[in-house]
Write a structure and sequence with these properties.
Length: 249
């Protein structure tokens, strides 16, 4: 019974997301219809000979699905009917259920990702500063050690990959801010395309993982009497986590 309730709750969220997507599709259609009309009007105003593009465009658009909102109205009505008939909670009336589906879904997932980005990103910077402070103040021969020399290659690979993920998220943020259709430019599937919060949350988790293994290495190197382990183990373990995450994301 609990599984059925969870599935119905998930379906309610999907229906609200689909309803909101249909509403955004109607807004997109309306905006582009207005753009067609304005472009054709501008053309007729500046063209020395061909003055009937606006009329021709209006006739062509009116004969296509693009020129009417019948499809989006039908989709909204069907979604409202199905939601109210099959998915509404027992304590809601049909009218309350329809009002519920008309409200856009919450951004809970985005908020969770923002929390992960903030916490893990902040921890990464804090751990990096602590590690650097420990190395500078407590041990002058840290960089002269062969253990550090070998481990540095593994930590450098992990750090560069983390930086690459952060920069990837920055690129997507620029595309999103200036409304570049990068999915079309790169031939990507928009339904599986990763968004800025997704990429930055992955980068934050990777960064904090790398920094944790880094400070473990530093502590094991500076305080061998407390850890009793080879510091290079943490470098290998950090690289192993990266490989494991790529194999089993």
């Amino acid at each position: 019974m609990k599984d059925v309730l969870n599935e119905k709750s998930y379906l309610r969220l999907l229906f609200r997301q689909m309803y909101n997507a249909v509403r955004m599709l109607e807004q997109y259609r309306s905006i582009n219809l207005t753009a067609f009309a304005k472009i054709a009007k501008k053309h007729d105003k500046n063209s020395p000979r061909f003055k009937t593009l606006r009329q021709l465009t209006a006739e062509t658009v009116s004969e296509s699905n693009f020129g009417t909102d019948a499809f989006t109205i039908y989709m909204r009505n069907e979604l409202e009917r199905l939601y109210a008939e099959y998915l509404r909670p027992s304590n809601q009336s049909r009218g309350e259920a329809v009002e519920r589906i008309r409200h856009p879904p919450s951004q809970k997932e985005v908020q969770n990702e923002s929390c992960v980005i903030g916490l893990c990103g902040g921890w990464s910077i804090a751990i990096l500063l602590i590690s650097a402070l420990l190395v500078v103040t407590l041990h002058e021969t840290f960089w002269d050690s062969w253990s550090t020399y070998r481990s540095w290659y593994m930590f450098r690979a992990s750090s560069l990959l983390s930086v690459y993920l952060w920069l990837w998220g920055c690129d997507l943020w620029v595309f999103q801010k200036y409304q570049f259709n990068h999915a079309f430019i790169f031939g990507a599937d928009p339904t599986t395309l990763m968004r800025v919060p997704h990429v930055w949350s992955i980068a934050a988790v990777f960064s904090v993982t790398t920094m944790l293994f880094t400070i473990f290495y530093v502590l094991a190197f500076l305080f061998p009497d407390l850890f009793h382990v080879d510091p290079e183990i943490f470098a290998v373990a950090g690289l192993g986590c990266w490989v494991l995450y790529m194999v089993i994301p």
